[in-house]
Amino acid sequence: MEIGSKLREARESKKLTLEEVQNTTKIQKRYLQAIENNEFGTLPGKFYTRAFIREYASAVGLDPEQVMEEHKSELPSNEEEQVITYSRVQQSKSEKNPSSGGGFAKSFPTILTVFLVVGLLFAVWFFILQLSNSNNSANDDEMSQDQVNVTDPSVEDDQSQDEENSSSGGEEDSSEEEADEENSSEEVAEEIETEDNQDQELEFSLEETGAGQFPEHVYNVSGAEERELTIEFNAETYLELNAPKDGESLADARNYSQDDEEINMDISDYTEVYVRTGSAPGMTVMVNGEEIEFPTDNLTQKLLIQFE
């Protein structure tokens, strides 16, 4: 009996439908039908055909390793493709030359804050200096008036008028300077608040590490309301990307290569994102620029990313 027929017989003996096996293994129904018909060329790639068959066997109650051993002559070998995949990944990593710059960009908010504080201190010092000069001028005028013997009443009236004008002018200057000082304080407060928002960082927590030939790992992510998902392709790999709770597919389920453009999308409205890969070394998964690593050395792996 061929391996596909054996799996179908085991499924039917347990009275399971293909839809139920699909929900258990998360393998698309058309791939399950191809396995039952021994049409392995329909599957997305030879190098994880074995992983799909193991998942199927486990779901219908068979020993995956025993099934693989008994039907190894029917299955395509993936050893050569694994070597090619890992060599591509190694070549891609060696060709990358990550930039070590960015130091000035990180320190720019701090430098800007220092300049704003210095500017505020200078404004306060200038205000105090102006106020002191105004007081000194008023004292000098009073002394001059005491020393001069004024005999003409009209001269006394003119001096009184000048003193009133000088006093009102000083009050206007003081009001303008106080307004400038308040505006500067508001600008500093807004800048500090902006820096606090920019410094908000994500926190990653690996809650569960999967096991088996096709492990599923669970990450909890917290610390930011706005989130952007980025997936870079380093070599040939199969990708499924969806939001399970919302029932949405976020990208085409197909093979990708390093010639494909990276995926960038806003996932702020989703509480969960599910990533399934046929070759973990062939891709890099990041949230807000922070990499979410695949915890094991398995070729085929799954990531369930939950946001708090």
Instruction: Report the strand count.
Output: 10
Any idea how many domains? 3
The SSE string, one letter per element, is HHHHHHHHEEEEEEEEEE
Which range best describes the helical content: under 10%, 10-25%, 25-40%, 40-55%, 55-70% or over 70%?
A: 40-55%
List the total number of helices: 8
- What distance lies between the first and last C-alpha atoms, to the nearest angstrom? 49 Å
Regions with pLDDT < 50 over 5+ consecutive residues?
A: 83-89, 97-101, 148-153
Shape by Cα distribution: rod-shaped
Provide the gyration radius in Å. 37 Å
Largest sheet: 6 strands, mixed
What's the oligomerization state? single chain
Rounded mean pLDDT score? 79
Strand order of the largest sheet: 1-2-10-7-4-5
Structural class: alpha+beta
Strand content: 15-25%
